[in-house]
Structures are given as C-alpha cells and as structure tokens.
Amino acid sequence: MVNSKDPSATETALSTPLLSAATSSSGTSSDTDDSPATSHRFEPQLQKYQISNVPVSGLYSYRSLAVLSGHIGSVSCLAICGEFILSASQGKDIIVWQQPDLRQFTKFGHGDGSVKALVTVGNKVFTAHQDSRIRVWKVSRSSENIFRLVDTLPTTKDYLGKFMKQSNYVQTRRHHKRLWIEHADSISCLTVYNGLIYSGSWDKTLKVWRISDLKCLESIKAHDDAINGLVASKGIVYSASADGKIKAWGKEGKSSHSLKGILEGHKDISLNSVIVSEDGRLVYGGGSDGGSADKNISIWKRETNGGLCRVGVIRGHEGPIKCLQASPNSVGGGFMLYSGSLDKSLRVWWVPKNSTGTEDASPVQSTVKDSIILC
C-alpha cells in the first residue's frame, strides 16, 4: 500500500461503487471513551460496475481562461467564498482571488502550518492545518484585514472546561496523552452539514464541531488508518480512509453519531477522496494503488446504471492535480472550473455543460491522477 500520509504523490482514480453491510461491532463512536456505537444496516442502492472509456476527441470544447501563480508551495485545496476564490498551499499561504477579473486580492494565513483543507460557512472561513489545528477566519469588509483570524479549534474555552479531568484525556501514542477534543496529527479534510463542521485526521479520528459556539461535540474513532476525505449528503457523513474503507455516519436528533455502514473498496487501495451522487444513492471513492499522476482532469458522465463513462480530458497543468472546485452558477451554457496543482498554480477553465451529453451537468469532486467530474 502507498504511504497513507502522502496520498497526493501517487493517487489514481478509483471510481467504482463500494459496498458492504455494517454491523454493530464495525466501529465506535464516543465523546470520551471506547464504548461501541449503536448501528443498523445502511443500504444505499449501490452496485459494482466497470468504468467505460470512450474516445474523447471532438466530444467537447473547454477553454483555459487563466493561470494564476503566486503560491510558494503546491496548491492543496480550493473554496468559493462569495465573489472570491480561495486557494491554499503546502507553503502555509492562502491567496484570495477576486472574480470576475481573477486578480489577486489579498493573502492570509502565513506561518500557521501547511494548509490541508478549507471550507466556507457564511462569513467565516475554516482552515485545517498540518499542525493539527483548525483556524477560523472572519470575512468583513469593515476591517482593513478582510480575512481576520478570530479563533482556533479547539478553543481556549473548550480547553479550560476539560483539562482538569483525567477522564477527558485519551492515549494517542505510547506515553502520550491528549484531550479528546484535540487532533493528534495533521487534519486532512473538512466538511460542513446542518450547523456542524466535521474534521478528519491522519490520527484516524473524526471530530464534530458546532459552528455556533465552536465547541467540539464528539470524537469518533473512525478508522484503522489515516482519514483522507470527507463528504456529507442526505444526513449522512462519509469518511474515506487509507484503510481502504468508506464509512457512513449518521445521527438522530440530539444523539451522538453512530456507524451506519461500511463501503469497502479494492484490496490494498488507500482511499483518498469520496463523493456522493445528488440523490444520495451512489458513492464513489478515489484511491491510490501506487500509480503515477498524469496531470490531467478527466470528465466523467454518470450512466443510468450508475457506471461512469469518461467523455473528456482537460490538459494544461505541469504537475499532478491536487484539488478541483466549480462554481454552481451557469456561465454561457457551461460552468467555471478551478484546479489546483502540485505545479503551484491555480488554473481557471470554462467547461460547456452539453459536452457531457446532459443539460444538468455539474462537477462534484476530484482525485489526483484521473480527476473526477461527475455529471
């Protein structure tokens, strides 16, 4: 298996549905202890199928609109925040690009550790870092510094409320203990759903934070290896791990999250990303099998049986592609696509929706070797 802590180096696309039933002993969910989570069968309508490849020449016409340079390290993640595009890098910097002219507006986040993931919620930006912390930035035009650091997770208040009790500490490594609200390794991914932020880490845990007061509500011992990807859909949060599994987590009312199902991939493949179809019926995982990255973005059409058919390839980057983001707004019969690469650049593309044979096409997520756009 490839190095679970460096999936970007050797990722390749794994775009096959993954399926197995969960049992009550398959995972644990706990605020402070090891008690097993209650669980029931989780059966989205998934089936295994083959990926179809068809000749891609002449099927569509994309346009390269801009190449945005300025990062001191490889681009690790992207997010859309109103009129801005945010791109973060392994070089610890976050650049804000203003639309529609795509000029560099400002930089922030220097010195806070390599940025692994970022999400936006209202007027706040949450950034996950290699130093195992989440930083909260407020967007305000009334301030000279429009992106201002307002807090770090776990918050000081959260620390003070828990550090005195020994029961709030968990064993992270031999002779090392931490509060259960702390991640013990790099935070690799974030997702937002229903007033909560979920963080996945190389420490194998999934943590749940309440946006309103930034309090850590749960710490879930989710996987047997590093967590590399998260996505939320239809009340379910999916975590993808280097252990080759995607796990589905859900909650009812005020209860804690519990394991709802396990989706298993091919043997010896580290899962690095996960996406879910709009109706919640199909789950796709992107993984590493030791192959090389090819610097291209592949466009895939979802077929009626849930299979994927590749209908196009976008070329232009000089290094492997690490992340994709797309505007939800239609522009001239197509959509704006943004790609970040290990070549330290952010590229902007226009992709026609009808290039994939559907008027309702929209991109969802990416992996590194064959970056996936589900339509």
Topology:
Elements (H helix, E strand, L loop, with lengths): L10 E2 L39 E2 L9 E6 L6 E7 L2 E6 L4 E5 L4 E6 L6 E7 L2 E6 L4 E6 L7 E7 L2 H5 L8 E5 L2 E4 L7 E7 L2 E6 L3 E6 L5 E6 L5 E7 L2 E6 L3 E6 L7 E7 L5 E7 L6 E6 L7 E7 L5 E7 L6 E6 L7 E8 L4 E7 L17 E5 L1
Parallel strand pairs: 2-25, 24-29
Antiparallel strand pairs: 1-23, 3-28, 4-5, 5-6, 6-7, 8-9, 9-10, 10-11, 12-13, 14-15, 15-16, 16-17, 18-19, 19-20, 20-21, 22-23, 24-25, 26-27, 27-28
Q: Would you summarize the structure shown here?
A:
The chain is an all-beta fold. Helix content is 1%, strand content 46%.
Descriptive overview:
Residues 1-42 are annotated as: Disordered. Pfam families: WD40 (PF00400). InterPro entries: JINGUBANG-like, WD40/YVTN_repeat-like_dom_sf, WD40_PAC1, WD40_repeat_dom_sf, WD40_rpt. The chain is mainly β and 375 residues long. 1% of the residues lie in helices and 46% in strands. It has a domain at 7-51 and 74-288: 7 Propeller (Methylamine Dehydrogenase, Chain H), CATH 2.130.10. The protein contains 1 helix and 29 strands. It has a 4-stranded mixed β-sheet, with no helix packed on it. It has a 4-stranded antiparallel β-sheet with strand order 3-28-27-26, with no helix packed on it. The relative contact order is 0.20.
Tell me the helix content: under 10%
CATH topology of the domain at 7-51 and 74-288: Methylamine Dehydrogenase, Chain H
End-to-end gap: 30 Å
Helix-strand category:
mainly beta
Biased composition (Low complexity): 9-39
Pfam families: WD40
WD repeats: 180-219, 314-349
Region (Disordered): 1-42
